[in-house]
Design a protein that fits this description.
about 60 residues, alpha+beta, globular
């Protein structure tokens, strides 16, 4: 398990921390969907992990 996976697991388990990440940091794990599949130039996939206030997506 990576540090990122552990941090995301904690955010999903702790609504108080997820709320802190959503505001004021605009990292909303409740909006992790993305319209189309996104890949790096190498072909490696990117996994959507959170949404942000202006409609963007955070990827891992």
């Amino acid at each position: 398990m990576t540090h990122s996976d552990r941090a995301l697991r904690i955010l999903h388990a702790r609504p108080d921390l997820a709320a802190l990440a959503a505001w004021p940091f605009s990292f909303d794990i409740g909006r992790a969907e993305h319209v189309e599949e996104v890949r790096l130039a190498s072909g490696a996939p990117l996994r959507p992990i959170a949404g942000e206030d202006s409609g963007g997506t955070y990827f891992l």
